[in-house]
Amino acid sequence: MSEKIGIYVCECGPNIASKVDIEKIMDEISKLEDFKDKELVIKNHKLLCSNEGKEFLEKEINENKLTHLVCAACSPRDHDTTFINVCKKTQLNPYLYRIVNIREHCAWIIPDKEEATRKAIQYIHAGMNRVLYQDSLFEKELDSNPDVLVIGGGIAGMEAALNLAGEKRKVFLIEKEENLGGKAVFLPEQKISDVQKNNNIKVFTKTVLDKLIGFMGNFEVVLKSTENPDETTELLAGAVVVATGYEFFDSKKLPEFKFEDKDDVINSLDAERMFSENKKITLKNGKEPKSVTLVHCVGRKEVGFCSKICCDYMLKISNYLMEQSSNIKVTHLIKYLNLPYKNSQNFYNKIKEKGVEFL
Ligand SMILES: Cc1cc2nc3c(=O)[nH]c(=O)nc-3n(C[C@H](O)[C@H](O)[C@H](O)COP(=O)(O)OP(=O)(O)OC[C@H]3O[C@@H](n4cnc5c(N)ncnc54)[C@H](O)[C@@H]3O)c2cc1C
Ligand code: SF4
Ligand code: SF4
User: N or C: which end of the chain has fewer CB within 10 A?
Assistant: First the structure.
């Protein structure tokens, strides 16, 4: 069957029509050298996603017996599904359709109309090429396995396992270490015992994932013991939750902080632990510090990226200190400050008002 491609350019009211030259687009598309041997149906519409627009498109696909469809409109996030659903009502396989975003990618961002028109033509041309590479696909229903594999026995993995496990769903929870719990400052004893007592959760400690084959709904899983790699377990699961936590950058390896010889250089997790246990941060001699300096970005250079969370976390530590005593002078040493969230910014302002210094 020879190809007959429908290209429908949406005006989106004035959104697209006032920013690109619709007539020029249609004219240039009709003259494309590499589509000379293909039959093209090129039309525009004021609002393709309106009820009237969808009916128009459905009629066009059927009456023209289109083999492929390109809608030059807006972001696929907005209306990809809309046009897929239109295709589903016709003889055209929805996998032979493509949306091209000439609104957000051209009309809305390029002030020069000629330039925006040129880019829109390029996009539509690319969409026409692309749609010819697509194949018809047919949806079918498969049985899916209800059981879940959870990787990582920290607080996140255990919580996921407890939430998912039930009469009709088994959870396989694997942890590479000897015990569950992960890096939580206070070992969540109750949660560990809830997990261990739950008949629908099977815990594998000192175990890692060896192989995962299959697809969503049907995975074949091979687990491997960390002690004896020849000891493997095979099981089936429909979904996998990865809750492997994080690895700390080992600041104690950096010589400039002199963790070895200076008693009172600690990392943030030590501070967290101290505060959780005693509700205060103390020096090794048991006394309250007169001043505390919080150094930001330790390890940033070494790992090569900003974690995006430790500025916030350092604010929390200084808040602990201010709650502990207003006599402690708290100073942050910052090279960069990354507070991406509105609440973080408010927290920063509050901390500054309390007298915490940022150098
Ligand atoms: C910025 C920050 C703030 C924090 N604030 C607090 C706080 O306020 N209060 C507090 O109590 N704690 C705090 N913590 C520390 C606390 O450790 C974590 O919040 C919590 O433990 C994270 O739980 P998790 O399950 O996501 O990860 P983890 O505790 O790291 O658990 C992951 C688990 O997965 C296992 N694992 C990893 N890879 C594999 C693998 N391939 N196969 C099998 N198992 C694997 C690990 O051994 C580990 O047991 C903070 C930590 C950070 C970084
Ligand atoms: S399909 Fe997209 S571009 Fe067309 S009218 Fe609707 S929102 Fe606007
Ligand atoms: S800027 Fe803040 S969040 Fe980023 S690495 Fe430095 S301390 Fe961490």
Answer: N
Domain ranges of the chain: 4-133, 148-242, 251-358
Q: At the topology level of CATH, where does 148-242 sit?
A: FAD/NAD(P)-binding domain (3.50.50)
- Of 271, 282, 285, 355, residue with least CA distance to 316: 271
The domain covering 4-133 belongs, at the CATH homologous superfamily level, to Lumazine/riboflavin synthase (3.40.50.960)
Q: How far is the CA of 98 from the centre of ligand 2 (A)?
A: 14
Q: What is the pLDDT of residues 93-151, one digit of tens each?
A: 999 999 999 999 999 999 999 999 999 999 999 999 999 999 999 999 999 999 999 99
Could you identify the atom of ligand 2 that is nearest to the CA of residue 10? 4
Give the number of the ligand closest to the Cα of residue 52.
Answer: 2
Backbone angles phi, psi at 335, to 5 degrees: -100, -40
From the list 143, 179, 175, the residue with the least C-alpha distance to 161 is 175
Ligand 2: lining residues by beta carbon, under 6 Å? 10, 12, 15-16, 47-49, 73-74, 78-79, 103
pLDDT tens digits for range 32-72: 999 999 999 999 999 999 999 999 999 999 999 999 999 99
Confidence (pTM): 0.70
Ligand nearest the Cα of residue 120 is 2
Q: What is the pLDDT of residues 186-197, one digit of tens each?
A: 778 899 999 999
User: Residue 13: exposed, middle, or buried by beta-carbon count in 10 A (0-12, 13-18, 19+)?
Assistant: exposed
Match 């190809």 to its residue by tokens.
Answer: 3
